[in-house]
Amino acid sequence: MSLRNPVLQPPGVKAYLSQGERFIRWDDETTIASPVILRVDPKGYYLYWTYQSKEMEFLDITSIRDTRFGKFAKMPKSQKLRDVFNMDFPDNNFLLKTLTVVSGPDMVDLTFHNFVSYKENVGKDWAEDVLALAKHPLTANASRSTFLDKSLVKLKMQLNPEGKIPVKNFFQMFPADRKRVEAALSACHLPKGKNDAINPEDFPESVYKSFLMNLCPRPEIDEIFTSYHAKAKPYMTKEHLAKFINQKQRDSRLNSLLFPPVRPDQVQGLIDKYEPRGVNVQRGQLSPEGMVWFLCGPENSVLAQDKLLLHHDMTQPLNHYFINSSHNTYLTAGQFSGLSSAEMYRQVLLAGCRCVELDCWKGKPPDEEPIITHGFTMTTDIYFKEAIEAIAESAFKTSPYPVILSFENHVDSPRQQAKMAEYCRTIFGDMLLTEPLEKFPLKPGIPLPSPEDLRGKILIKNKKKQFSGPAGPSQEPGGEAEGSGPPNVPVGEDTVWAGEEGAELEEEEVEEEEEESGSLDEEEMKKMQSDEGTAGLEVTAYKEMSSLVNYVQPTKFISFESSAQKNRSYVISSFTELKAYDLLSKSSVQFVDYNKRQMSRIYPKGTRMDSSNYMPQMFWNAGCQMVALNFQTMGCGPFLRDETLRNQAGT
């Protein structure tokens, strides 16, 4: 518990959001377009809209996952709605009026609420400011008292035509035990009949708190209070409260000089804030009710509020940070069957993920558009271009720090790889980092740039191969022969990719790989592939894709000794959870040293077909930066998913 005033202030709601704006709400399924007034309550708890019939619909701000406007908003598909909005007229300005609010309990089960404003560019302002409310650190990390206050706000907004609070709304909001609700209302001298209504002036915050105390008594808190309060006195003094905080709430392992115990004179501010009786406040006394509200306050939140702000030094080399990473990002369900969706890229990036995975495969004629799918499974495909567009839209909406695209590239077509590279260049534009920074050349012994240096940049992690001359579109006379290599590479030559400035893997590394492959019998190879999935089956990196790779160059891991000798900070190796655990068991110190110098990526074993997650903590403990998790399922260990980049020195 912290006695300091909360560092974070609740999100401020701009006046125009509370005053409201006229929109048309439309639904493609029902083909209905209805005029509404869209508003946000003054405390920023709810986005709600009122129909002409005075009926209201509420959307909890905490459930909002994204807001979109312009070309990124949803477009009506039904001709009826398109006619309503005159969308097929050439001078139509529909895109300047759109607003889509995306909500849902998780990243897969999403609902799209679609609006069209009467004025141009109104949707843009609403999208930006509503998303700012939804992504405010206190929105998802509010104290218990805030959630109780939300209930009061909603009760006072849902009034009947006479401007009163229907008692039936109490039964709907607290449905567990109707008799207890009736008893609590009676204890506060309020009507309790189903058809009764309460004047809002008769239900201020003080009466609401009394209602809650009667509805949900807390005998366990009374027991704690009794063990610390003055004998035969119905209150705690400042000395008693200080003793409770120091003995029950303070971590005894803390350094007493850096984190000194609280003094009685310091707790008077808590009594001023939470004690409901003015007489007790003047005397420096805390009642049992005041104790309950103190425990519900932000001082007792699970997370210290000052830690919700950016408080780490973001100027250290990139490998000094834990990087929120996603595995097989495009999947919405299991690893073997189910839908793939470009929407998942938006959702994980909005949730703070900074490393997403793209499993790329060759597209089929006639379009030959590269696709993303989980190879050799029954999962559906999405176009590579759709994923890139989704990433470009959402990459820096909620965080300014670099995004890493981890390519698992199975596109064995120079022409289609060239198309992939062109999509990256044109769609990402200046966001794509195509050349190393001048201060951080790709040389042994030079550290990686920092998140601050790479602010707003997208980095490509893809196999890299040496080519002479500038990168450009592949030119192949007479078309492309499938399976053909890049220029000057014989057909059928084994794939070799770079670990340093586009240089080939050194001879001894290649030999060691070949020896390792030759020593495995067929059964061992099958087991390795089942653990690694399709990650070990990537193809040659052609010129255009190789030219996009700089600070995140993947290479096959040989040994910790070999990596230390080469001392290349920009080279990264990926390990299945099983391989990483084996290395941790046998060479934990060397693994930590490796992560001090360069980055590692851990990903789930291939047999986790249900998209379950492993416990990531052991790999974080070793300093592994990219511990990739399946975001579509909660599984084990996603409790730190909403962190973006966390400085290892600060954890």
Automatic annotation (TrEMBL):
* Keyword terms, alphabetized: Hydrolase, Lipid degradation, Lipid metabolism
Q: What is its EC number?
A: 3.1.4.11
Q: What is this protein called?
A: Phosphoinositide phospholipase C
Spell out the Acidic residues composition-biased ranges.
501-523
Q: Which InterPro entries match?
A: EF-hand-dom_pair, PI-PLC_fam, PLC-beta_PH, PLC-like_Pdiesterase_TIM-brl, PLCB1-4-like_EFh, PLCbeta2_EF, PLipase_C_PInositol-sp_X_dom, PLipase_C_Pinositol-sp_Y
Please name the top-level EC class of this enzyme: hydrolase
Q: Which organism is it from?
A: Balaenoptera acutorostrata
* Entry keyword Ligase: no
| Skewed-composition ranges (Low complexity) | 468-486
**Which residue stretches belong to region Disordered?**
465-524
Gene, per the UniProt record = PLCB2
